């Protein structure tokens, strides 16, 4: 059985009133309605009927002046880290949803659920129950593109079984085995746990791929059990548009080949004579391993599949776009085989990088990897996934490729792997960092009519402002960045990268900047340590220069400045370590509860 909870029920409502609604909407139920004060319960024969009731009744049906709310009934003992989110806008990009979910904690999985409804449904698992509870409170009923989200717990059957065996009275057994076909337990197409495939298509074929009123793309989605995002609004006027396919490897291949077939048919119908090669996008960090030493890997794929494969030049990369275009020339069958081999190589590279990250899971404390969008739990391999959308760049950019320098290799492994643990319990605290940049670079950071700094602020989820020059001939200017640890990481990463990209530093010169953070004056000694021990250890660990100027006068908030000078990763690591020290100081200052109401006894000297 699938038990439903019906909320916001009027005191005047009866069992017959509720039964009338179910019969009118042709929703089957397998038992009587149990009506309580303000709410009711009813059993449905299967998951499909329960989902139908939620879709048709919740927020849509009114009874005695009250709008009914319907959700899966989940006892408190079974409320876990898992939840289902319904009524998601059908054309919403998954990157936006991912970024929204990451605000409330670490998302371990996010799976698409196939339904007959126009709107999308996903099952989400958080790393902790309190994170799931917070997401439930914030998201249920919230509006997204004129759609009210509907969130409900997915029962934790394991917890129920354990609870029954551990606490059950004699003669009573657990409620049985987990329901077959309950959300998230079937073989569903995973949206996050498999690498999404990114492909480029000529702009003139986008209409044919979408079809009349979206019919064609819906059919592809249904047949291949995938989620497909067509980024039509990116790069206005561009000759090609990116498409992101979220599914299993098989689903990605099938969807890609179906799209290729549609384009070839449209080319015949429109008398388009040029060849239409298969083009996919892959992150630059995987490309070196795709090519192999002296090009051996790529040559072998070409020989095995009878295709000709070319990869776009490194010069095409920017700090906002770290994807390379891989062009496969051959028949559909040959291209399909080549694509399958390329995806296998990329998956191997991704898994290797993830293994490297897991080995170094505690280097930067306090960074929520999911919120960063650099390497979400759902494998971003071929394209952006998770967190905020990047500013408009070629092919839409890559949200997680946040290297300020680019280049091959796993640049994130030593540092970004760091921690997927939230900075603190609940929401991460906002931090303020003053970053000093060359005065001549201010125009590059702001951009034409302020567009660059606006895009940067939107991408990072931070407030970014350029402070006025203190003197007319100042050689440095201050960028004031306010945001969470993850927002600070993104914003500072982009600024370091922009300075390198715009040649404010030489080709072989490392970008080193000075950052200032403020700490409570009473905590400055803890940062320095006895005889300078702590600050020396900080410098040795982070490779950054850390200075707490002596004889500072605390400001109006009783805070003093700590200076950090170094390259990007050194600065980040130093900032995180200092924030960790401050967090320890704050915890130690919290009053400890005393037993029996007795005041704490003073320590003996």
UniProtKB/TrEMBL annotation:
Q: Where is this region: Disordered?
A: 160-191, 585-605
Q: Which residues form a coiled coil?
A: none
Instruction: Provide a GO biological process annotation.
Output: mRNA transport
Q: Where is the composition biased (Polar residues)?
A: 586-598
- The source's superkingdom equals Eukaryota
* Keyword RNA-binding among record annotations: yes
- Tell me the InterPro entries matching this sequence: KH_dom, KH_dom_type_1, KH_dom_type_1_sf, Nucleotide-bd_a/b_plait_sf, RBD_domain_sf, RRM_dom
Looking at the record, the residues that make up the RRM domain are 2-75, 81-156
Gene3D superfamilies under this entry?
3.30.310.210, 3.30.70.330, K Homology domain, type 1
- Family membership, please give it: Belongs to the RRM IMP/VICKZ family.
Q: What is the protein name stated in its UniProt record?
A: Insulin-like growth factor 2 mRNA-binding protein 3 isoform X1
Q: Which organism is it from?
A: Notothenia coriiceps
